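## tool: complex_structure
## caller: assistant
## args:
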Amino acid sequence: MKFDWTTLIGLIAAICTTSSFLPQVIKILISKRTKDVSLLMYAILTTGLFLWLVYGFILKDFPLILANSISLTLSLCVLLLKIRHG
Amino acid sequence: MKFDWTTLIGLIAAICTTSSFLPQVIKILISKRTKDVSLLMYAILTTGLFLWLVYGFILKDFPLILANSISLTLSLCVLLLKIRHG
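## result:
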């Protein structure tokens, strides 16, 4: 029972942190504005998520690979939109 | 040797993703502008990071607790600044 609850909390946590960048991507696609979004944040975040993905591949850890693939894609979207819109 | 490289990649990844929110906090503190920052993103992200912290406490996993404490604090700062500045 304890294991199930713990796994559930971890799963919801992973879904939240992974999907959280989607509203930011959608917001930018609609407004085409990124002035208040930090370029440095998304540069560091994208680098970090890429390294997490490499880490996941080395460990052959499927949840790490899946979660970080999604996060990296979304973070990269924000980064590219920020570079485009300034 | 492989273990060392893997741990190093994981460590750098953790430092990047954890510290990445700091430039966004500093940017907002200087500009006092959050118009282009997504409220929904930081609401979901803060919830997710809080759940990761709970998960870390249940597993008594010190790296999880440390990394998510820092991320949660920074994410919460952005969320509160977004609520304040709109």
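## assistant note: Chain B has four helices and no strands. Chain B has a mean pLDDT of 94. Handing back to user.
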